[in-house]
Amino acid sequence: MPGSKFGSLYSIMTFGESHGPFIGVVIDGLKPGLPIDLEEIQRELDRRRPGQSKVTTPRNEADRAQIVSGIFEGKTTGTPICIIIPNQDQRSKDYGKLKEIFRPGHAAFTYLKKYGIFDYRGGGRASGRETATRVAAGAIAKQLLRREGIEFYGFVRRIGPHEAQTVDYHFIEQNPVRCCDPAVAQTMEHYITGLAEAGDSAGGIVELHIRGLPAGLGDPVFEKLDAELSHGLMSIGAVKGIEFGNGFRAAEMLGSENNDRFHRDPVSGQVLPATNHAGGILGGISTGQDLVLRIAVKPPSSINKVQHTVDRSGAPVALSVGGRHDPCICPRVVPVAEAMAALVILDLLLVQQVIADGEKNAAALALEIEQIDAQVLMLLQRRELLAARQSAKPGMPEQSPAQQLDRIRDLAEQTGFDPAKVSKIWDVILESIK
User: Fold this and answer.
1) Which pLDDT band holds residue 139 (cuts at 50, 70, 90)?
2) Rounded CA gap, 305 and 303, in Å?
3) The CATH number, out of the four listed (3.60.150.10, 3.75.10.20, 1.10.10.10, 3.40.50.150), of the domain defined by the range 92-122+134-245+280-351
4) Entry pTM
């Protein structure tokens, strides 16, 4: 199946289904010798795993990462890294009654139209379980980016009608909904649990702040930073929209309100935007400010409320999905969103490093040319001195300019240098040492 690969220099390929024996990821593009904290990979997976609170699915998966290849004694070997995660608490029998039914909001209909076959047990590749593999790959990316001073802060901004008004980074991991506002978190939690008891679900908005980004990441036109982030984040199955900075509010603003004016920063002395309505991106390239984005997350489709649909033959069916499902996916989307953004940022940072290396190579070439020019001048000076000594000695035979030119043209042909160019250069040399 195409579409399971992501990234260019730091690339991943995920594999496995929700109810198969394993899910996993193959990561490529890291040089050897990079220290990797395996416990941090597990900590990130623990943030995403099911069964961690009453606002998530009760499916109890440990999500223990197993490193199959690419890391030896805590360091990358330069070969592809393979990580697998066993599926241990799947209940495939719960899906038997759904085999022939088109569940509202699910991908079975479109997968069948495209492939003619669909793993109905938990949604197969369309399941949110696949995102655990992204979190594992993103955990490695986040480690490497932290060494560059880049940090990711994801949180729940909104659940249904309830929206956070303040942002406290330290509070995010202290509440089960990963809300950033202590005054709203409990209200969000009660709202979700109430919907779960009623057999329904809720969507919301997840916000992500990326701090410490250098200016200059991203490429113009088709590979803009916001376009690449949109690609990564919109590939998360539950995400239905994305915005940067003012986002859709910019449609209601005036240019004088939405533009970020520039000023000289009083602390650093650098010229920087004074505001951040653009969310840290101008022209598809990072400004060096905090990158601010928000994603819209849909309500989970599997609910216990009765829904009216049809089976594969078109016969009407009254369906209550049942089983174990999240009443709101937003808290578990937070680490997935951070991971996908980290994959994008690391990939672009590696591209930028290639550009920088190219500039270094260009500087080295310029230095070498400069050194050759100095050597040429020193040789000309040496030749002029020897010619003067030769002419000062009585009885020494002298070559005419024509004879000298013939000799130089012969030498040029022997060394592969263009004789016509040599003739022009030699005329200048002879004129300068008269």
Assistant:
1) very high
2) 6
3) 3.60.150.10
4) 0.82
